[in-house]
Amino acid sequence: DDKEEDENEEEGSCSQQNRASRRKNYQRTNSDGKKAGEEGSRQREKGKKAPTKDQKESENKGRKTNKKEKEGENKQKTDRKNSTSSASSNSSDEESLSEEELAMLMEQVEQKKKLISTMRNKPWRMAKKLSVLREAQAFVEKFEGALGKGKGKKLYAYKMMMAKKWVKFKRDFDNFKTQCIPWEMKIKEVESHFGSSVASYFIFLRWMYGVNLVLFGLIFGLVIIPEVLMGMPYGSMPRKTVPRSEQATAMDFSVLWDFEGYIKYSALFYGYYNNQRTIGWLKYRLPMAYFMVGVSVFGYSLMVVIRSMARNANESTADGDDDHFVFSWKMFTSWDYLIGNPETADNKFASITTSFKESIVDEQESNKDENIHLRRFLRVLANVLIICCLCGSGYLIYFVVKRSQTFSKMQNVGWYERNEVEIVMSLLGMFCPPLFETIAALENYHPRIGLKWQLGRIFALFLGNLYTFLLALMDDVNEKLAEEDVVKNITRWTLLGHHNSSTENGSAVTPPPLDPADVPRGPCWETTVGIEFVRLTVSDILVTYITILVGDFIRACFVRFVNYCWCWDLEAGFPSYAEFDISGNVLGLVFNQGMIWMGSFYAPGLVGINVLRLLTSMYFQCWAVMSSNVPHERVFKASKSNNFYMGLLLLILFLSLLPVAYTIMSLPPSFDCGPFSGKKRMYEVIQETIELDFPLFVAKIFSYVANPGLIIPAILLMVLAIYYLNAVSEAYQRANAELKKKMQMQREEEKNKRNNKASTNPMLQDLEDLFTPSTKNESDSKQAEDKKTESPNKTSPVGKQGKAPVLPGSPMTGGRGAAFTPPPHVLMTQPPILGVRPPYLGQPRPRGLPVVPVPGRGRGQPRY
Amino acid sequence: VYRLHGRYHEMAPNVVPMDYTKDPDVKLPMQLIINMPELKENPFRERIVESFSEDGEGSLSFNDFVDMFSVLSEMAPRELKAIYAFKIYDFNTDNFICKSDLEKTLNKLTREELTAEEITLVCEKVIEEADMDGDGKLGFADFENMISKAPDFLSTFHIRI
């Protein structure tokens, strides 16, 4: 690098001088028009240089004895001398040189400078470079002085230095940025061992973590912390107090584990929040904030998902003609020459091998074709089977949820009955994917497509389960709502009764406040729903981790250590090591995220739990993968963009938005818990805020905007815009495809042209070769022709004889290009070839004749 | 350059003189060069050194040494790198990358973990993809055409020292 910098600096200073001198020259002569012709005249220049070089060499010898590592100093020295010595020579030169000579000199100097600046790009040996460089430098140095002094050299050098520093800084900054990406090394390591598809899962996980972190910040910063800091403390009002009947067991672990007791009445759940319009000295409007955060969680997620989808789509279209040189690039550019660490090198070797295998699999897949009918039948069969499975699991869940509602009405139910729903769902999630995988084996898709199908199916399973779960929950909620009405009355009555009794007892005394724990309260369905989601999430986490621990780690340990004393080879045989199940894991993640989105409105703490989960699972799964999984037998490459995952995520986001929106818009909130208690619908909080906190005209505007007469046209407009944009993008796509096709055609054409050239060139050569000796043979062939003409009716044998000396090496009759290689003189040395020919003689060969005279005529018709 | 010289010197302190003012003619054998940490893990280290050495045997004079690292530096232009990359991958130095060269490259890249069929398949694919003139091997024009479109050639083909 140092060297380069040296050179650079020098170039810089040189060109600076150069410019200055040129300027001067302009003033003097204005005869600069020849510059354009310079390029071509380099060779000539060399000849001219020769004499001057010698002079220079001798001049500079004193200074230039140093070798290249001294060059840096040298240059400075020479620069300095330049200014001094040239000044002296300057005067004499200037007088003696005429204008034209000066122009010539100028040209030469320019030339040299160009040479110096492009020196580095020439594939010469260093020794040659050095000598040429030195020569050129000396030349420039000598005559630069004659033409003018470098001005502003210092400024220029300073500028150069700054530019270099800036570049370096940018590079460092980039390095820093890549270092800041969390888990990059871990993921790369996994990638090198397991291929890009497994790594894509981890990248997805990381992305998910980022999104959740933002959501977590939003919810904690705007809802939970204000409530904890400024809201009324625990125990101040009924909704923030554990009821009397539960207080005895509220701290028990088993109760807490079910998210009852103290946890239920904490800021983690909807029910804890108060419906006070403003809290604290900041007049923080908590209900409003709660509502807005709930909405913006969805808004933000939607935005992020769509944006990353769009970016992925852009990326995938950006590198369009990637697929021409897949193998070549892999072959020649995959090794990173920077690698100097044995471990990294190992990884790199592994990853290169994997990537080769991936492409080989791709290639083989594309070349395969088999019995289509059988395969179609199998695919249909597989789909039918899978649909059966889906329906079965959906019904099972519905059944279980229904049953659990009856259980919940009974008093003393066991642990199993209470957790039946979660257990059944987890079991389904555990056993259905492998079942699908077995069924999918029937279909025999390419692994990448197979993965998509598999994902789609599991997704359908999860979705079905989730929605049956939701429906059952909705039933539950409706029941609770009915119950609530009853409780409302009771509460009023008790309060009234309390009042009455107190007023009866002591007339003047204000009634002693009822202890908040004693107030009868409604079931608060929002909290119930929230608890349900939290439980589901937690049980999901546990099941995932336990599966990994048992299914992968214990199995791996068992296989590894029991293998020494077992009757068959465990590693190769039945249990073997587990593979990393990408589809299951991705789906688990997506599904989990859906639950988070749905549940976060009812249980703000859920996002926090999820962040913890993602964080641990990153480390845990990385570890599990590296320690106890084996790479897939059929390694395959992840599709370029993980838009498929994103699509799933978007779908589930939308689907989880639906129930939340439904509850917000059309279910009445519970009357005695949560930030929206006392309102008919949750969204009324917005209207309230607008009416009370904003000036009147805003409310007016709002009411206009909310008018259906305005909303419907707006929606129509949007639909039209979407339609238009869609049409435009389609047109672009078509144009793109067309262009690509054209390029492809052009390539082919070029290839063909080159092919032709390549094949015609040697042909011509050969013909020329043929030509010269054939003139010698002219007489022979003439004779032959003569003979032929003499006896045209004497059919082939004669003709053959006549041709024999002319075309000895003529397997040419076959028209092979290869036949060109034996040029005519071979015929002199190898007449015996004739002996081979006779077998043909018997057969009257029509083709034989036209070929014969070819060299005789002296013109090789390129019929081959 | 100083740093380079330092490295060069340190590989064989007894052979290489500290100052080059007297222009000595010293060469280092390949064995020493390829044990540099920068090259030690490189599967093509022998080829790299060979293609930069003036005598083709793998021993480098200091000039060659500087040459090598200037080509492999970040500042070197793409064309120059392509020329030397071609030299490196051309194992039998016949100015074409032919099948045997490709096979060698592949074996070095994957530590011979691919089966024979896979190797032949890959080699055939490479030739099919990159061979523009249809002569069954890659000339420099083919190679340059291919490499100039490769996205990460520049980023991978350099050594920082």
TrEMBL record, chain A:
Residues 524-639 form the TMC domain. Residues 1-99, 743-864 are annotated as: Disordered. Signal peptide: none annotated. The chain crosses the membrane at residues 207-229, 288-306, 380-401, 421-442, 454-474, 601-623, 644-665, 701-725. InterPro entries: TMC, TMC_dom. Residues 1-12 have a biased composition (Acidic residues). It comes from the Eukaryota. Keywords: Membrane, Transmembrane, Transmembrane helix. Residues 842-864 have a biased composition (Low complexity). One of its GO terms (molecular function) is mechanosensitive monoatomic ion channel activity. GO terms for biological process: detection of mechanical stimulus involved in sensory perception of sound; vestibular reflex. It is a multi-pass membrane protein. Residues 31-44, 51-82, 743-753, 777-791 have a biased composition (Basic and acidic residues). GO terms for cellular component: plasma membrane. It is found in: Membrane. Belongs to the TMC family. This is Transmembrane channel-like protein. It comes from Psophia crepitans.
Automatic annotation (TrEMBL), chain B:
Pfam families: EF-hand_7. One of its GO terms (cellular component) is stereocilium. GO terms for molecular function: calcium ion binding; magnesium ion binding. One of its GO terms (biological process) is calcium ion homeostasis. Signal peptide: none annotated. It is found in: Cell membrane, Sarcolemma; Cell projection, Cilium, Photoreceptor outer segment; Cell projection, Stereocilium; Cytoplasm. It comes from the Eukaryota. Keywords: Calcium, Cell membrane, Cell projection, Cytoplasm, Magnesium, Membrane, Metal-binding, Repeat. Gene3D superfamilies: EF-hand. The keyword Repeat applies. SMART domains: EFh. Residues 77-112, 118-153 form the EF-hand domain. The keyword Repeat applies. This is Calcium and integrin-binding family member 2. It comes from Alca torda.
